[in-house]
Structures are given as C-alpha cells and as structure tokens.
Amino acid sequence: MSVAQVAKAQIIEQYQLFAGDTGSSPVQIALLTARIRHLTEHLKSHRHDFHTAYGLKKLVSQRKKLMKYFKGRELSAYQQLLKALELRDIK
Fold it and tell me: What's the sign of the alpha-carbon dihedral 14, 18, 21, 23?
C-alpha cells in the first residue's frame, strides 16, 4: 500500500459508523477534508496552479453539500464531527 492508501484507510477506520463502512457522510466529509488540506498546502507553494485551484473549489463545494445534508440528519453527530476535524459550522 502507498502512503496515501494507508492514510485513507486510517481515516475510514476512525470515522466509520460500522465495520466496512466507507460511504457514510462522516467518512466522506473526513476524506474530503484530508484532500482539501493536502491541496491547500500544495497551492501555498504553487500559486499559479490554476487547475488544482479549480479542483479544490469543487471539493470544498462537495464537502459543503455533504455537511449540509449531515447537519439536517444528525445534528449532535455533526457537531462532534466538526470538533474532531476542526472545521467551522456551515451557514
């Protein structure tokens, strides 16, 4: 396994709701957050990488939609996820 695969497996293991869970909202939000943080670090040193900036905007939008859905379904679990991932609440 590559380093990225190991990191992804650790994130899934930490945020899964049951064994084998890879698609629940908390898992998806956590994976998107990891990708967003990685791309943000990349863009700090490569400011003119506009293709990556475009992809980053799409990922942020996708995460926001998932967070809005999850907030409407399970508010207390949503708030715990925000604390664990150190994110701000959406509007």
Answer: negative
Q: Please, what sign has the CA dihedral across residues 48, 86, 74, 5?
A: positive
Which of 12, 16, 29, 14 is CA-nearest to residue 89? 29
DSSP symbols for 62-88: HHHHHHHHHHHH-HHHHHHHHHHHT-P
Give the chain's domains with CATH numbers.
3-85 (1.10.287.10)
> Given a cut of 80, is residue 14 above it in pLDDT?
yes
Whether the full predicted model's pTM is greater than 0.85, yes or no, is yes
